[in-house]
């Protein structure tokens, strides 16, 4: 069964460093998402991406964040200068293009720890 | 703006007992509703979804949920809980725009007593 994969599973970084979180969505999916979950809190939407551009983003997704689909398979989230409050689990998700198939398939997540 | 409320942060049930997890949503149109389950250290797995039609939807692992428009609710149920059902459960509402972002509730942590 196809699945969304994410690497690394755990990333530890120093405050102020740049991090790139990687995701490989399901191959025939066209919509891609990043969500985050701060420990003990709810899952929050960050950004959605379609046709090589951002289609929607939340207030959390400020200028420190960027997304890219550098090739036909990867979808990345970059945080330019990490802050302590960026520590969270980051989930990538993807969905198929057909309107009725609104199910988003989630990856296992990357736990980001900023020291 | 859409929102989801899960009133119960923690629920403990005995194995074999029935389960109902509550979810209330706020959305301006007919919502797309989802229940996801998250086991420790794992990602989010879809249990079931509601788009339209029959208001009682069946999902995986013996779960079902009922959409009640008048109550703005989408409660998750299972007639007999198994120890392996211990996990965190998230209700979510999906926007109807092209981005289709999901808005999640705060989650309910289910513990199962032997």
Could you explain the architecture of this structure?
The complex is a heterodimer of chains A (115) and B (114). Chain A contains no helices and 11 strands. Chain A has strands spanning 5-7, 10-13, 19-24, 31-37, 43-50, 53-57, 65-68, 75-79, 88-95, 105-106, 110-114. In chain A, the strands form 2 sheets. In chain A, strands 2, 4, 5, 6, 9, 10 and 11 form a 7-stranded mixed sheet that branches. In chain A, strands 1-3-8-7 form a 4-stranded antiparallel sheet, with no helix packed on it. The radius of gyration of chain A is 13 Å and the shape is globular. The N and C termini of chain A lie far apart (37 Å). The mean pLDDT of chain A is 92. With 114 residues, chain B is mainly β. Chain B is globular, with a radius of gyration of 14 Å. In chain B, strands 2, 5, 6, 10, 11 and 12 form a 6-stranded mixed sheet that branches. The N and C termini of chain B lie far apart (41 Å). Chain B is 0% helix and 52% strand. Classes of the chains: A mainly beta (115), B mainly beta (114). Chains A and B meet through strand 4, strand 5, strand 9 and strand 10 of A and strand 5, strand 6, strand 10 and strand 11 of B.
């Amino acid at each position: 069964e196809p699945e969304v994969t994410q690497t690394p599973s755990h990333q530890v970084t120093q405050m102020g460093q740049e991090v790139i979180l990687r995701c490989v969505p399901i191959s025939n999916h066209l919509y891609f998402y990043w969500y985050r979950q701060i420990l003990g809190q709810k899952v929050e939407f960050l950004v959605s991406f379609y046709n090589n551009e951002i289609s929607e983003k939340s207030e959390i997704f400020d200028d420190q964040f960027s997304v890219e689909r550098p090739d036909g398979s990867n979808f990345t989230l970059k945080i330019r200068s990490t802050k302590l409050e960026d520590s969270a689990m980051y989930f990538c998700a993807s969905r198929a293009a057909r309107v009725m198939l609104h199910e988003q398939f989630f990856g296992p997540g990357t736990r980001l720890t900023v020291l | 703006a859409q929102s989801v409320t899960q009133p119960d942060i923690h629920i403990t049930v005995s194995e074999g007992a029935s389960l109902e997890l509550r979810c209330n949503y706020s959305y301006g149109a007919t919502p797309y509703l989802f229940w996801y389950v998250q086991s420790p250290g794992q990602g989010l797995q879809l249990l079931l979804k509601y788009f339209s039609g029959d208001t009682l939807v069946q999902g995986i692992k013996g779960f079902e949920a009922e959409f009640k428009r008048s109550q703005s609710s989408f409660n998750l149920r299972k007639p007999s809980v198994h120890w392996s059902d211990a996990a965190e459960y998230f209700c979510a509402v999906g926007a109807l725009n092209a981005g289709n972002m999901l808005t999640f509730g705060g989650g309910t942590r289910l513990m199962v007593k032997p």
